[in-house]
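hey
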């Protein structure tokens, strides 16, 4: 997407200007990931021009209006300062969840490192999956747990593993326990396998997630396991998009 296309979508009628016109959050992501600082300048200009909302809302008809101004803020910070600039966004409670969700789209070791550092400060007591801590956990799951995962240092995985296990122990809902079990697939170790096998969950979804976690970790730890090549990873990503 080029600058003119984004501007036309932002100006497209169909609701108040502050709703973002026809711009989708994913449009902003793709735009800034491709164009970098130039995209940040244009996104900031459009957000100011149209008065994009900083807080979302639910309309009387049930439709959700996304906080395009908040997403613009995250994209502008990334476009100008890269992943490092999102550390300060994670320190802001109002922006942390947005920054954590955005980092799922930046497949790099630096993204994982920033998310892990943030997760070290999370208590994991919130029951809302939209809490910034759980958004960060979901992003780590997306970055590390699939065949097209980001390659990171063993030391970084070692630092994340106890965080995931602690999050599972504190998770107040079965759905959040499932998220932790999905994420632990990305930090396999003999100890993590033993931990998962020792769990005796009564919830069927948690039990299924545990079984899948054990299977995936055993696969990755097997001596004959070979990580996918870059081309194979691209194929996995394309297939995942096709499956959505």
């Amino acid at each position: 997407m080029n600058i003119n296309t984004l501007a036309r979508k932002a100006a497209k009628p169909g609701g108040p200007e502050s709703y973002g016109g026809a711009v989708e959050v994913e449009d902003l992501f793709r735009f800034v990931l491709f164009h970098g600082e130039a995209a940040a300048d244009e996104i900031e200009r459009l957000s100011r021009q149209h008065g994009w909302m900083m807080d979302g809302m639910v309309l009387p008809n049930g439709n959700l209006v996304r906080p395009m101004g908040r997403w613009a803020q995250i994209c502008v910070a990334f476009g100008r300062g890269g992943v490092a600039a999102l550390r300060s966004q994670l320190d802001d409670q109002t922006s942390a969840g947005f920054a954590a969700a955005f980092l799922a789209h930046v497949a790099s070791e630096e993204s994982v490192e920033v998310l892990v550092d943030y997760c070290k400060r999370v208590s994991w007591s919130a029951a809302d999956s939209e809490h910034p801590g759980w958004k960060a956990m979901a992003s780590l799951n997306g970055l590390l747990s699939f065949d097209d995962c980001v390659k990171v240092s063993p030391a970084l995985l070692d630092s994340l593993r106890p965080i995931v296990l602690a999050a599972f122990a504190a998770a107040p809902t079965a759905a959040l326990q499932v998220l932790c079990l999905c994420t632990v697939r990305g930090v396999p170790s003999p100890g993590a396998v033993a931990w998962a096998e020792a769990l005796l969950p009564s919830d069927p979804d948690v039990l299924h997630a545990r079984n899948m976690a054990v299977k995936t970790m055993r696969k990755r730890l097997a001596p004959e396991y070979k990580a996918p090549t870059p081309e194979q990873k691209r194929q996995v990503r394309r297939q995942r998009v096709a499956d959505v």
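The beta strands are 57-58, 64-65. The two ends are 21 Å apart (CA to CA).
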